[in-house]
Write a structure and sequence with these properties.
2 domains; six-stranded mixed beta sheet; 454 residues; 22% strand; elongated; single chain; Aminopeptidase; alpha/beta; Alpha-Beta Plaits; 10 helices
């Protein structure tokens, strides 16, 4: 979907000093007329203390709602569904083009040993602004969960809201982070370090070919002093996430006609025995609570869910030859992934020793992570949210996996905060409020200034 008027003049990104020069008359889309100049009244070269800094960022960002919406619509129109991993290259090509049009340096990394649904290696992008060894990371993923309707890839606008698959989770966050960098560049502030915008695929299926691949190849979190993730957090800061291990269990039997069931071996009845043993583990697991803050509708208990998906059998009058079900184990930050995984597998191995033929595959596996609110980035983010919105944010644990875990494993403090509501992400009416995108963009820029100004 072409975006009318979305053009940004290139700026030399190789200057030794990272105090951006004034560029009167710089055109952002069609929003500045030929006689208008973008002066440094928008933001002083020396950051204004207190709320003035946030107000100046918002003053630059708010008139750009239309062009931010246009870029987001372009991204939503590319159906990067995962699974199976569609059109990653097309989306990465567009993102790379836009980043370079904005004058940002952009490194393109392809996981050549892996393939997406189109037979190409998944593409990761790392765009940079600034110079120096200290790196403040912005992070986003451009894959989306499968749509309920193809119409979700036909973005539509209603007032300040843009609807479409990925608008909330999390292409809107990507646009907000890009515009945070543009706002910082136009303010002319000297950054003592650089911002790295990392864009990855495959977040929705565990990170293989994306963040996990970058981490395995030493390309993630290098020199990091902090990381912000633009997931839809519904107005709170996620400073922790649960870990996960998900398995599919296949229990085997022998098929026979119902009238000759004594000649068969009932896979369903065997599966019931396996589930009974897992229910004992479930009772033990769900007595454990987390001490992290949680959302109003969330549970403190550790989680072991049985049968999220299940199936088997050929017909009502045939002894089932195979039955299967899933296990979804969600692990609190206080628990250890390896220990909890071993307990699960020991139950399954015990069933095999008792003569129940079964096999399993691991669908996803990811560790929990946590950062305290008192970390410098935690305080900078809280101050930035308060400066832009007027309200102090609440810190909570995310109920699911987050890619903050990859940075935490590298010793980089990592938090999630982004536009959008978790309640509409992945749903049939997914949307993002463009005003919240602008607020988040100002918050990201404000936090970057706090982290990289001194």
């Amino acid at each position: 979907m072409p975006v009318k008027g979305f053009r940004i003049e290139k700026i030399d990104s190789k200057a030794e000093s990272w105090q951006a020069p004034a560029r009167p008359g710089l055109q952002y889309g069609a929003l500045l007329g030929g006689g208008e100049s973008l002066t440094f009244s928008i933001m002083s070269k020396t950051p204004v203390e207190g709320d003035g800094r946030a107000k100046n960022l918002l003053a630059w960002l708010q008139p750009r709602e239309e062009e931010m919406a246009a870029l987001l619509a372009e991204l939503v129109a590319i159906p990067t569904e995962n699974p199976p991993g569609n059109l990653y290259r097309a989306c990465a090509d567009l993102l790379e083009k836009r980043l370079r049009e904005c004058g940002l340096e952009c490194e393109r990394l392809e996981a050549g040993d892996l393939k997406d649904a189109c037979g190409a290696g998944p593409v990761c992008l790392i765009a940079s602004y600034g110079r120096g060894k200290r790196v403040f990371y912005f992070h986003g993923h451009y894959d989306v969960v499968p749509a309920q309707s193809r119409e979700q890839f036909q973005p539509r606008r209603k007032d300040h809201f843009l609807f479409g698959r990925g608008s909330c989770d999390m292409k809107g966050g990507i646009v907000a982070m890009l515009y945070a960098i543009l706002a910082l560049r136009e303010c002319g502030v000297a950054l003592y370090g650089r911002i790295a915008l990392t864009l990855v695929p495959n977040e929705e299926t565990g990170g293989e070919g994306g963040s996990a691949w970058l981490a395995a190849h030493g390309q993630l979190g290098r020199g990091g002093i902090g990381m912000l993730l633009a997931e839809p957090t519904s107005g709170v800061v996620w400073n922790a996430n649960r870990g996960a291990i998900t398995l599919r269990i296949r229990v085997l039997g022998k098929s026979a006609h119902v009238g000759l069931q004594h000649l068969g071996e009932n896979a369903f009845e065997r599966m019931v025995r396996v589930v009974e043993r897992l229910q004992k583990l479930k009772q033990e697991v769900e007595r454990r609570n987390t001490n992290f803050n949680i959302g109003a509708e969330q549970a403190r208990q550790s989680i072991l869910m049985l049968g999220g998906q299940s199936g088997g059998g050929a017909n009502f009058n045939v002894v089932p030859e195979e039955c299967w079900f899933t296990i979804d184990r969600r692990i609190n930050p206080e628990e250890d992934l390896a220990t909890e995984k071993a307990k699960l597998l020991e139950v399954l191995e015990g069933c095999k020793r008792e003569g129940i033929p079964l096999e399993w595959e691991i669908l996803q596996e990811g560790s929990s992570s946590a950062c305290c609110e008192e970390e410098p980035l935690g305080q900078a983010l809280a101050h930035s949210v308060r400066a832009v919105t007027g309200e102090a944010p609440r810190f909570e644990m995310c109920p699911g996996l987050l890619e903050t875990r990859f940075y935490a494993a590298e010793g980089v403090p990592a938090y999630a905060y982004g536009p959008g509501l978790l309640s509409v992400a992945h749903g049939p009416n997914e949307y993002v409020d463009l005003r919240k995108m602008i607020d988040c963009s100002a918050i990201y820029a404000h936090a970057a200034l706090e982290m990289l100004h001194t």
